[in-house]
Amino acid sequence: MKTSGAPPDGKSVEQLDRAVIFLGPPGAGKGTQAKELARSYRVPHLSTGDMLRENIAKGTPLGVQAQPIMARGELVPDSLVLKMVADRIERPDCSHGFVFDGFPRTVAQAQYLGQLLKAHGFRRPAVIHFVIDTSLVLRRITGRWMCKVGGEIYNIYERQPKVPGRCDNDGGELEQRPDDREEIVAPRLAAYEKMTAPLAAYYRRLGLLHTVDAAKSVDTVTQQVLAIVRGAH
Ligand SMILES: [Zn+2]
């Protein structure tokens, strides 16, 4: 195994100096990879969900606006999300770049983000698209069962408990989260595909889109991501 793909660490940290954008369906592992990349380069991992929660917790004007909308279970409007992102990337911890997870979601957001990055003098972003077969994602998500006692995660397709329906550690009953059921997940994946296709096409036209094979192991995908980020210009 070569070690040259190891994450940059120690004193001579490579600078990211750009935004890295992760696109991919739920269950493709992009959240894990986005966090890992951010950790390697010591830059913030930005998710709009976290940003919203932070604004609400701090009671900022944006948070005050967003709170009732989220409480009703509605989608926070673009204008609010974009303002929040604009505020966030002006903070000093973003000066050497940052990793976006789950943003942008639309071409309009992507265009706005492009202007924002340019205005702040960042290089062109690297966009990493997690490509994975829908049936595989379905297995990953719908196969996930969790121990009611200790929270251990199993996968009935990939990591089975020794006794069906029971936790190996404590014999606890395994249950599926309601959101992980196929009738919930399948439409979400379809909606995601529909929403992401134009976004991926947009970034492809700009020459910014890179794809990774998200069916591969976590380590392999990590190496693919690092290679893309280092090779992007
Ligand atoms: Zn357990």
Helix/strand layout:
Layout: E1 18-23, H1 30-41, E2 45-47, H2 48-58, H3 61-71, H4 78-89, E3 97-101, H5 107-119, E4 126-131, H6 134-142, E5 144-147, E6 153-155, E7 174-175, H7 182-205, E8 209-213, H8 218-231
Parallel strand pairs: 1-3, 1-4, 2-3, 4-8
Antiparallel strand pairs: 5-6, 5-7
Zinc ion binds at residues 147, 149-150, 152, 167, 169-170, 172.
Give an account of the 3D structure.
The strands form two sheets. Strands 2-3-1-4-8 form a five-stranded parallel β-sheet, sandwiched between helices. Helices cover 45% and strands 15% of the residues. It has helices at 30-41, 48-58, 61-71, 78-89, 107-119, 134-142, 182-205, 218-231, and strands at residues 18-23, 45-47, 97-101, 126-131, 144-147, 153-155, 174-175, 209-213. The model is unreliable at 1-8 (pLDDT under 50). The chain contains eight helices and eight strands; from the N terminus they run βαβαααβαβαβββαβα. A hairpin with a 5-residue loop joins β5 (144-147) and β6. By secondary structure, it is α/β, with parallel strands linked by helices. Zinc ion binds at residues 147, 149-150, 152, 167, 169-170, 172.
Keywords:
single chain, 233 residues, alpha/beta, five-stranded parallel β-sheet, three-stranded antiparallel β-sheet, 8 helices, 8 strands, 15% strand, binds zinc ion
How far is the N terminus from the C terminus?
27 Å
What is the number of helical segments per DSSP (H or I, 4+ residues)?
8
Query: What is the average per-residue confidence, as pLDDT, rounded to a whole number?
Result: 90
Largest sheet: 5 strands, parallel
Bound molecules: zinc ion
Give, in spatial order, the strands making up the sheet with the most strands.
2-3-1-4-8
**Which segments are poorly predicted (pLDDT under 50) over 5 or more consecutive residues?**
1-8
Give the % helix.
40-55%
